[in-house]
Amino acid sequence: MCGIAALVGKSNRFDLDTSIREMTDLVAHRGPDDGGHFREGNVALGHRRLAIIDLSSAGRQPFHSCDGRFVISYNGEVYNYIELREELQKEGTIFETATDTEVVLCAYQRWGSACLSRFNGMWGLVIFDREENRIFVARDRFGVKPVYYTANDDVVAIGSEIKQLLPFVDSRQVNQAMIVEFLQTGVAERLDETFFAAVKKLPAGHYAEIDCRSGAMSIERYYCLEKAAAERRAQAIDVDSFESLLTSAVALRLRADTEVGTCLSGGIDSSTVAALASRQYRSMTQGKAFSAITAVSTDPANSEFEFAQSVVEHADLAWFRTTPSYEDFQACLDDVIRIQEEPFSSPSVVMQYFVMKAARDAEIPVLLDGQGGDETLLGYETYAIPYLLSLVYSGWIMSFVEQAKLLRTNNSKMTLGTFFRYGINNALPGLRRRWYARRHDYLAYRGHGNRWLERVARGGADPRLYQTADILETNLPALLRYEDKNSMAFAIESRLPFLDYRLVETAIAMPTELKIRDGWLKWILRTVASRHLPEEIAWRKRKIGFEAPDSQWLTCLQDTMETEVMSSDAIAALVDSRRLARRYPDLDRLSHWRLFVLSRWADAFSVRM
């Protein structure tokens, strides 16, 4: 896991040698083990290395191909590099290192952009073709690793973090449409936009090519989840085959020349990953205990300590715990805002920061995580609504009644009020849009509608469409951004078995009845988990999710939030101040939080509203 930087100069305004070094230095935290630079003509590449595979200096980047034609700066891991290496060797490729970086570069030499479809992993990469004077930029299928860019008349700049690009931006103007959507709904991510109007993201599953002579950039989509999942629907899928696939995904992500551990919340996703990984890790390391990191909430209402403890004892894990206090939260908040680079919707992001800090303190540079399990296997309560609506629209009224009762029985949060609220949200997005607009009518800028609500509406009564939107657009991208920034702030490589592309495609392709059955969300995962975990973990009825002690922290922060929001120049530029003053007492705490974190973010990055 690393930090990348690239520049294509289009004028003489910037000194490329100085600029690429400054860009690279800004992400030294992402790669504390090594760094390097390359400059040729109007092209410059930079790299910071976190050594995970082949720890020798042979893995130093920017990395050159054997013939010198190609130069790569690469962030991520391609877990199936061993198998790809063997395939390339059979075709005559000679390797000089044991790195996955060389495999990635040789794969591009051999197959061009088609190499991306062969990779199983996460990546943000830049490859300079010195002969063609062209740059190839690519991001993994689901956007686990970031690639940001900005382009103007002087330069095309590419980096792993936004802060690398801000020196090349003439004006730090805010993206007003994103601000409005964030304040109204909490949605903090868009496919190719950021909160900075001039900074863009390469969308997940896309690659770009840059003509270094002109600076012209073209972007192409190389991966379509819907199409890939459709091609898997003919395959027989059952509990055994799913367990085998998840076990394989975990095994690939245990490949490292350093210690590997896992995040453990106590929920079914992280618990299943921990149990499967523990067994495999002991086998690989002659009995060494697998390590788990848990952030414990001080609020009994959302603490999962007892569940995590049960998993630790059952899987015989080495357990590291951190219990952040309000004082800890308050002390690190500004650091987290700078690390995240964009506003975030809840204090749970700060809780994750403490997990990564604990991992660094324990000297565990690689962590597995259960991120993506809910989106791929229908784990959120919201998924029950399109499932139930699909039964109604298919004419299975009795099944609808029976499944609704079972969902209420097996999910503690699934009340009649939940059904009604989520049902209205799905069936009548226009009504929800008007509600948001009315509740937040203090905003001076109303934007161009809510893209998030439009995407939710597309899911309607189709669970497959609904979860695909969550994976690609509405929910998962923000969670991946939070995890990347928090983990890399402490030079931790976070690996996500549930986002193995084979598993995601299989999960989308499998019948809904394998994901929701007898009132159980994530039924197929629960069945697999019951083979490796205690019943009280596998068949928990009360889902908590990864949460901070929000009620405690935000209660303590309440006066500070109101004072800062009401005195903020940034907020004043966005709102009707008198109307906000009237509305503020009636807004919920997370709405207060969003206004507050937006204010602090604008100050931290000198953003123009």
Would you mind describing this structure in some detail?
The model has no long low-confidence stretch (mean pLDDT about 95). About 45% of the residues lie in helices and about 15% in strands. Helix 2 crosses helix 3, helix 6 packs across helix 21 (about 525-530) and helix 23 packs across helix 26 (about 590-605). The protein folds into three domains: about 1-175 and about 195-225, Aminohydrolase, N-terminal nucleophile (Ntn) domain (Glutamine Phosphoribosylpyrophosphate, subunit 1, domain 1, 4-Layer Sandwich), CATH 3.60.20; about 225-550, 3-Layer(aba) Sandwich (Rossmann fold); about 550-605, no CATH class. It contains 26 helices and 19 strands. The radius of gyration is 24 Å and the shape is globular. The longest helix has 18 residues, at about 550-565. With about 600 residues, the chain is of the alpha+beta class. Helix 8 links the parallel strand 14 and strand 15 (about 320). The strands form four sheets. A six-stranded antiparallel sheet has the order 2-3-1-9-8-10, covered by helices on one side. Strands 4-5-6-7-11-12 form a six-stranded antiparallel sheet, with helices on one face. A five-stranded parallel sheet has the order 15-14-13-16-17, with helices on both faces.
